[in-house]
Amino acid sequence: MLTIDKLNFSYGDLKVLWDIDLEVHAGEIVTVVGANGAGKSTTLKNISRLVKPTSGSITFQGEELEKLESHQVVERGIVQVPEGRKIFPEMTVLENLRMGSYIKSARKAREANVERVFGMFPRLKEREKQLGGTMSGGEQQMLAIARGLMANPKLLLMDEPSLGLSPLFVKIIFEIIQEINRQGVAILLVEQNVFQSLKIAHRAYVLETGRVVLTGEGNDLLSNEHVKKAFLGM
Ligand code: ATP
C-alpha cells in the first residue's frame, strides 16, 4: 500500500533520515519506534508532504507522491493525526470534527461520519458543544483521532498518540487504534511507548539516528535483545 524506498531527508545542513526503506501493507498496523530525535516524526512529515524528501521515493497505492501537495495526499487517503494533538481550542468538539472533512470526497459523508465517530467515541458525543481547548489531554487526543477519521483515511499516520496521557487513557487509545484497524484502516504509528505499540503492531521498524536498524514482526521485536535493552529497560 505504502512503499518508502531509500528516503533521505535534511533540515538545511542537518541530515536526519538516511536511506529509509519502509512498507505498510493493507490491513496492517506498523509501528516505528526509536529514541527522541531518531527521525520518527520527520518520516511521517515526509509521507504527508509537510516536508519534501531530499531523495528517494514514496509511493501510495502505486502512485508516486512526489508531485503532490499535502492536501492532495489527504485526498488519496493518507491522513496524519499530528503530535501534540493540535485540535482547534476555540472550536467546539463538533466544529473540530467538521474541520476534518474539508476534502471534497469527505464533505458528502460529513454527517454520516460525525455519527460514526460519535459511535466510536461516546465521550466526544457527550461533549459535542464543549470547546476543544477545555477538554482533558486524553479527550483532546481522542478528538484529534476522530477528526482524522472524518477524512475517510485508508492509511492513518499517528504521531505519539499516547504521549502525556494517564495509564487509563493510554489503554483506551491503544484499543481505539486496534478498533480503527479492524474497520479496515491501515495504521502507521510512531510511539515512545515501545511495549504497548509493539504489542499491537503486525510489523515494526526501529529507527536510530535516522536509520532503520531493525525490522520484524511486533512480537519478535518485543523479545529481541537489543530492543529489550534499549527500549524496555530489561
Ligand atoms: P521525538 O520523539 O523527540 O519527536 P523523533 O524521532 O520524532 O523524536 P524528529 O522530530 O523527526 O525525531 O527529529 C529528528 C531530528 O531532526 C532531530 O535531531 C530534530 O532536532 C531535528 N529537527 C526536527 N524538526 C526540525 C526542524 N523543523 N528544523 C531543524 N531540525 C529539526
From TrEMBL:
GO MF, one example: ATP binding
InterPro entries the UniProt entry points to: AAA+_ATPase, ABC_branched_ATPase_LivF/BraG, ABC_transporter-like_ATP-bd, ABC_transporter-like_CS, BCAA_Transport_ATP-bd_LivF, P-loop_NTPase
Family under the similarity heading: Belongs to the ABC transporter superfamily.
Sequence ranges assigned to domain ABC transporter in this UniProt record: 2-234
Keyword Nucleotide-binding: yes
Pfam families reported in the protein's UniProt record: ABC_tran
PANTHER family: HIGH-AFFINITY BRANCHED-CHAIN AMINO ACID TRANSPORT ATP-BINDING PROTEIN LIVF
Protein name: ABC transporter ATP-binding protein
UniProt entry keywords in alphabetical sequence: Amino-acid transport, ATP-binding, Nucleotide-binding, Transport
